Amino acid sequence: MADSLKIDFQAHGAVGAGDLIVFVGENLKPTPAVAKQIGPKAVDLIAKAAAAENFKGKAKSTMSITAPSALPVDRLVVIGMSGEKEQSKIDWAQVGGIVAGRVTGKAATAVLDIPGVDVTPEAVSDMILGIHLRRYSFDRYKTKKDENGGNGPVRLTLTVADPAAVKKAVKAREGVATGVIMARDLVNEPPNVLGPREFAARAEALSKVGVEIEVLDEKAMQKLGMRALLGVGQGSVRGSRVVVMRWNGGKASDKPVAFIGKGVVFDSGGISIKPGGGMEDMKGDMAGAACVVGLMYALASRKAKANVVGVIGLVENMPDGNAQRPGDIVTTMSGQTIEIINTDAEGRLVLADVLWYVQDRFKPKFMIDLATLTGAILVALAQEYAGLFSNNDELAQRITAAGQATGERVWRMPIGPEFDKMIESKFADMKNTGGRHGGSSTAAALLQRFVNDLPWAHLDIAGTAMGSPQTDINRGWSSGWGVRLLDRLVRDNYETR
């Protein structure tokens, strides 16, 4: 990761210069071990400052004391962790983000001994993840860097109970942070830099960590009959691609699990062109594909004991004289036909062919697709949850649990015969939109026609993956949403024990 942060681990003991970070509970007191380490004068100073600033020690709240006379440090930062209920559901990545956000100098020490909380090596590894994600910024195209952006060189020392165990846990998880950042970088890239061919080349770089890569060009897709996907890209001068990524970390006899990503590198809407205002954001319409690339890196880097297939469909949707039109009918790889009502409902056309290809070629245990598919999902769920659609209750429950564990939350949405009826066409097997109402569910209903009864889930990430909310672990435009969720899903449920 391109971060000037250096992290050290040491046993609890003396603290160095710079910022000192400690944690307190609802009584505003650090643990006895920390109190002994910083001394009674510093403990009294925390109590007096808290009274003066009305600091209650609530979870995620912070208080800073500059040049504390009781300590040989530049600044004492106190982070609240109060409340037993909150402590049982601590989001350690968020805690790491809070720590990173409060470090202002070039050196800092965080004492990870927290009242009423067992700070396990796994918890520390999640904190490290949050620290790296908080410090992420995308400024490669700025000729003048922000010297005060909070991402300057820092040496952060974490004092822990068992440094050796923590180092081992952190090493096992560091690929997840890199995978998230890889996804963020892809989504943030400008569309003139990242076309389908360039995106495919970025994915090919995963071969360095042992991922097998295969790239299908337009000739290969034409031979396979992927005419729905090719129809989306036919208005662009940049050729479409499909990238197949395989990580074989399980038993040879194990069926793979499969992840599919929508990769519309820029979506003008095509002939059904979008309004000009905000169209620049449509460079992020490939966030599903970006997630799959980051996920495959994360799994390969930690040598996940599972067989995993990641497939992304990469296209550009442009409105030239060769672009597909409303009223066109395309024949998908499955043989089913789709009437084009709106060329801006293009992502489902890409996914239709890729879903069919994956289930037909790899016969996986399940398929999960991710796509910035509909604006309707923002109306329903804002930017707090991704929409989850599934034909399998067990898979849906496992995704939901992984979302709760990582903070990348999903909310299950309806899909059924009523929505199928809404996409019936007078001229083809289906049409690519079902009208204004239930837009996310009708899109999912179309996708379901291409999974052939295989366990499947569709994640509509239009609200969570780009233009993302500012949080303690994301200060940029792209969140890299989904990498942590799906890594956790595989780790908890599908690796060989």
UniProtKB/TrEMBL annotation:
Instruction: Write down what this protein is called.
Output: Probable cytosol aminopeptidase
GO molecular-function terms, A-Z:
manganese ion binding; metalloaminopeptidase activity
Keywords attached to this Swiss-Prot or TrEMBL record, sorted alphabetically, are:
Aminopeptidase, Cytoplasm, Hydrolase, Manganese, Metal-binding, Protease
Q: Which residues bind Mn(2+) 1?
A: 267, 344, 346
Which cofactors? Mn(2+)
- Stored InterPro entries: Leucine_aapep/pepB, Macro_dom-like, Peptidase_M17_C, Peptidase_M17_leu_NH2_pept, Peptidase_M17_N
Q: Which organism is it from?
A: Microvirga aerophila
Where located? Answer: Cytoplasm
Catalyzed reactions: Release of an N-terminal amino acid, Xaa-|-Yaa-, in which Xaa is preferably Leu, but may be other amino acids including Pro although not Arg or Lys, and Yaa may be Pro. Amino acid amides and methyl esters are also readily hydrolyzed, but rates on arylamides are exceedingly low; Release of an N-terminal amino acid, preferentially leucine, but not glutamic or aspartic acids
Q: Could you mention a single GO BP entry for this protein? A: proteolysis
Keyword tRNA-binding set for record: no
The principal location of this protein is cytoplasm
Annotated Gene Ontology cellular component terms:
cytoplasm
